Amino acid sequence: MKKLVLILICFVLVSAKGFSQSFFKRFEFGLKAGANYSNFTNANFPTDPLVGFHAGATVAFKITDNFLVQDPFGRAFDDPDRLIRLRISFEDALANRNRLTDRLASKQSARMRSDAFDIEPVVLIDSRASNRYTVIEVNARDRPALLNALAHALFQSKVTIHSAHIATYGERAVDTFYLTDLTGDKIAGAARLKALERRLLAAAAGAPLSEAA
Which residues, in sequence order, are CB contacts of 114 under 8 Å at separation 6+? Predict the structure, then answer.
């Protein structure tokens, strides 16, 4: 029995060590310090200057998002020039350097045959599938900038995306989102859920972002 307990303890310690190495690498620690000098003038009583000193520590936690992507033909981005353009596009999007909405609106589908398929958008909302999140599944015809439109609709609805699962089956896109409100609770209220459904349906149907919101 003692051997079993020792084995379990070793296993936990090794697992914890592997987790801590990957987890704590995301933290950055720093120090900050400064001094200030103050004096009171034009007083009717004698005053002495005050000198103060303060010090503190800073902690930053890196949050990373991993994307597994392919080109419109289902191939990997393996050309060096295309990889550079992809990296620049991500950097521009994160820094909000240009209007990505206009660029996406002008982008044509690489598979024009998708226009021949009539897929009616469907939004399914399930508040019981998860104990913590409101789960929403959107079915729509796949097209460029579909995910951007759906993300914009969710942003306008003031919800937090905790997990997103993006999939395509032929010309059909099936995107599932695990959501909460801004306080971390499930999205409650029939009126709010109906408004969220209406925004997502409009976005999935291709309505302009201003209308989808």
Answer: 141, 142, 143, 171
